[in-house]
Amino acid sequence: EVSGVMAEADIKPKSIHSAKKWSDHVENLYRFQKAGYRDEVEYKQVKQVDTVECWPETGFVKKLQRRDNTFYYYDKQRECEDKEVHKVKVYLY
């Protein structure tokens, strides 16, 4: 049986654009990209995990493991400032 993670290993984005305004989704993309991943899909493929640890209060990503196995820890509050929003890449599948 092929695990769900392995079955998704060949998922590639069809298009990409920059974020225009902040949202919860953009906040989480910012956190994945800061840790060196496109988004949650790529993180799960690379790290072979089924879930990502999130803050229950906000739903924002709490902790990510970088490719070099060091960890990034994030606050419950918003971290992506308005001036950073345009740098966030939004991938469509």
TrEMBL record:
<comment type="similarity">
    <text>Belongs to the MEIG1 family.</text>
</comment>
<dbReference type="InterPro" id="IPR020186">
    <property type="entry name" value="Meiosis-expressed_gene_1"/>
</dbReference>
<protein>
    <submittedName>
        <fullName>MEIG1 protein</fullName>
    </submittedName>
</protein>
<dbReference type="Pfam" id="PF15163">
    <property type="entry name" value="Meiosis_expr"/>
</dbReference>
<dbReference type="GO" id="GO:0005634">
    <property type="term" value="C:nucleus"/>
</dbReference>
<comment type="function">
    <text>Essential for spermiogenesis.</text>
</comment>
